[in-house]
Amino acid sequence: MRHLPGFRLVLCAALLATVAGCGPDSDQNSSPTAPVRLYGSDGNMLNGVGALVKNQPRLLDGMKGTAPLIRLTEDFRRRLNNIDPNLHDLAYAGESYDAVVIAALATQLARTTDPEVVKNYIVGVTNFGQPCTAVAECLNLAREGKDLQYVGVTVKTGLSEIGEPSTTTYGTMHFDTNNKINDVLTEYVGAGAPGTASAQPGPAPAKPSTKPTGAPLIIGDLTSHSGGNSESNPPIYAGARLAIKEINDAEGVLEKPVQWLNGDDKTDIEKAKAQLKAHISAGAQIVLGPTTSRVTAGVMEQITSSKVIAISPSATSAQLSTVVDDGRFFRTAPSDVLQGKALADVILRDGTKRISIIAMKGAYGEGLQINVRDELIKAGVPSSAIQTLNYDAPSDDAVAINVSEQVKSIKGFAPDGVLVIGLDESAQVLTQLATAGVDPRKTPAPKAD
């Protein structure tokens, strides 16, 4: 596993004036009909999105992008496959698994399901103490009242003081001629710093003699089984189900099986609020989700006022790092500050000279767009060679969107690279770009340096 090559950003800045492959030449525009390179982010670098453009053969061939993605062990893949043999993607499966396990361990250490107490244990469960990896091993340590450090599938070096990963790994992924991710070409790049993990130990574990209160632990599902983010949800759901199974196979939490409440935030703020209310009424102390940053920000006030705990496996907006959450929101997915650097590096390595970044409106799309743009500028790319546009994304990907004005603007800008930041609706954006002639299939795409 190699580390994030951030030095390349500096190198490109230093050589920009002399090396054609590092950055754009602001004095030269490509022809509007020249082939373009396509780029994506974690919300659309999915086989599910590729399936949505099945009427556009080879449209995504060569498209590159990034997503939080660790090299999963064969053992974990096998266990996931036993839960869902039909998985086509694995993004955020590990993050979802870790979120549920961390919730269970924090509850066992606290010996209560009271969210007011459990929230104080969540960060500490991943820092200090005796390292452990297997669910049964970690639960036994917690039952014995011992400090432990859960080293998870994706949470390897502990959560930070604000409850998000201190380090992560990004996958640089490539679509092939069948509009599918080619796993053979996936590169894994480390990001973050172990030193950002919390330096504050959590509260001492409750003594084993302490009588458990509030059992059973009830976790509500607040992920996107439908709506505009549904294509990314199967691995998230599989990871959560695997964690619940393995926790309960290891005798559960507080002497009882953990209960799972099915649910769906439908990638919509108001529907997520209704689902959260139903979970709380059913006794949930913790919810897994929401899965998108926009929905997460939209329900945060309800999370804090209801005094539950929310752990998102996939909400990545940098804005969530500073949200007012009363210490009740955590995530096992990294901030997009890190993904912005990774995506910028992919673009720079290709020698893309002129880039259009079109992103869905909201915390995720606009936030990551700004992060990528800033990283490119830091590397010496002229701001005049970076175009940014936004569009309204529906909560339901079946609803047609019209980005004709944005596409017209992109065509006039004549980029040799287009980055699309969105969710399932990205398929519509890519199709409309191709229809207007911003299409990598026009001529053979230029090779990366």
Automatic annotation (TrEMBL):
Matching InterPro entries: BCAA_transport (IPR051010), Leu-bd (IPR028081), Peripla_BP_I (IPR028082)
Annotated region (Disordered), positions in chain: 192-234
Alphabetical keyword list: Signal
Residue ranges occupied by any Leucine-binding protein domain in the UniProt entry: 219-443
Record's signal peptide: 1-22
SUPFAM superfamilies per UniProt: Periplasmic binding protein-like I (SSF53822)
Domain of life: Bacteria
Feature: compositional bias, Polar residues: 223-233
Similarity-based family: Belongs to the leucine-binding protein family.
Protein name (record): ABC-type branched-subunit amino acid transport system substrate-binding protein
Species: Allocatelliglobosispora scoriae
